[in-house]
Design brief:
Blueprint lengths: L5 E3 L10 E7 L2 E7 L2 H17 L3 H7 L5 H17 L3 H14 L4 H18 L9 H9 L5 H20 L26 H10 L5 H10 L3 H5 L6 E2 L4 E4 L10 E4 L2 H7 L15 H11 L9 H14 L2 H8 L4 H8 L5 H7 L14 H4 L1
Antiparallel strand pairs: 1-2, 2-3, 4-5, 5-6
Helix pairs in contact: 4-5, 5-7, 8-12, 9-11, 9-13, 13-14, 13-16, 14-15
Length: 367
């Protein structure tokens, strides 16, 4: 093969190009054009080096795949660079938590992240981030012996960590992307019957009653109610503000206060302060559930009950999705359609306190 040399080049159509280098590429003649002589000389030297190295066994192996030594260098160099500036997973976790806290992540999110990634750190804490492979993560996830949902939640947390590492150039790719997701079983949406909802409200103490009423009749998420302040409940406009900071989606929304919810909250209203008591809330909640005779508590029962009865009563998936903070009304429609009959929905939204009666709930609504 001829040696690549720099030659002068003239073309009236491309006057800015002054030099040309001829060489072989995949066995065929090729030319590259340059404005600067020094750049052209450097390119020619690279091609000559390839020609010399190309006679080695390694270059011949690469040639079978249509690749050159230069291609191999270009591919492998980022791995070397990442290895030189990488860190252990334990160091990465500490750095990630500091960054998330500085970015304004909630305490609940940080706790969850620390817990899930802390488990992963127990196995991979001393290993360099750039050396942790997809198959190792796969094996670790499968060995957790937890539900599919819990496994996928842990996978999501690890993916967050490696995405952060990728941005910091601690690795050249995110190995979690290639790991398998566990198949989550499709379960039926569980909701409370009208009788169960009525008994629950009747059994609740004033401390836990606002939490239950807001969950049943406004559909806020558990964490959103726990962070809700009385000052965000506007009785004049009839709206509950879920701030971006307190929302799961990090987006502010206003939820309509239905008439019966207003009746439940009005006697208990405060100007400010947390709606949910910080002390012994779980104990008070369990007491109300047991007193109501609800042996098995459906997953996310309050929010799912709200969505199901709201969709059945108002027959507007977009409106229900807006109240729930869903981005897509199709998801709401698919999950909650036909779970409740319209007649029962009407009774649900009539569940309200009885003024001057011994029972908290009107009898017609609690049947």
């Amino acid at each position: 093969m001829r040696t690549a040399k720099v030659r002068s080049y003239h073309d009236k159509q491309r006057p800015h190009l002054k030099f040309v280098v001829s060489y072989k590429r995949n066995g065929k003649r090729a030319r590259s054009f340059f404005e600067n002589k020094k750049v052209a000389q450097t390119f020619a030297q690279l091609k000559n080096n390839e020609r010399v190295i190309g006679e080695t066994d390694g270059a011949k192996q690469l040639a079978k795949f249509g690749k050159t030594i230069a291609d191999a260098i270009e591919f492998y160099l980022p791995h070397l660079q990442a290895s030189n500036r990488t860190c252990t997973f334990a160091e990465l976790l500490a750095e990630l938590l500091r960054a998330k806290e500085a970015d304004g992540a909630s305490a609940a999110y940080l706790t969850d992240l620390k817990c899930r990634l802390g488990q992963f750190k127990n196995s991979f804490g001393n290993k360099l981030v750039s050396e942790i492979r997809s198959d190792e993560i796969d094996d670790w996830l499968r060995g957790l012996n937890v539900s599919a949902v819990t496994r996928n939640n842990s996978r999501r947390a690890i993916c967050t960590a490696f995405s952060f590492a990728l941005k910091r150039n601690y690795c050249v790719s995110n190995p979690v992307v290639k790991t398998a997701k566990a198949k989550e079983p499709q379960t039926d949406i569980g909701i409370l019957t009208i009788s169960e909802a009525a008994r629950l409200l009747e059994s609740a103490t004033p401390d836990v009653l606002p939490y239950l009423a807001i969950g049943l009749f406004a559909g806020l998420r558990r964490a959103e109610i726990e962070r809700l302040d009385w000052s965000k409940i506007d009785f004049e406009s009839g709206l509950i503000e879920v701030t971006a900071q307190n929302s799961k989606t990090a987006q502010r929304r206003l939820v309509t206060m239905q008439p019966n919810l207003r009746e439940w909250l009005l006697p208990l209203r405060k100007h400010k302060g947390n709606v949910t008591p910080s002390n012994c809330f779980r104990e008070l909640f369990e007491q109300a559930r047991e007193a109501a005779g609800i042996a098995e508590w459906p997953d996310n029962a309050l929010r799912h009950s709200f969505a199901s009865y709201h969709l059945a009563a108002f027959k507007n998936a977009a409106s229900t999705a807006l109240e729930l903070g869903h981005h897509d009304s199709r998801i709401t429609f698919a999950h909650y359609r036909e779970l409740v009959k319209p007649k029962n929905a009407e009774r649900y939204w009539n569940l309200s306190p009885t003024a001057g009666a011994s029972s908290k709930v009107v009898s017609i609504s609690s049947r």
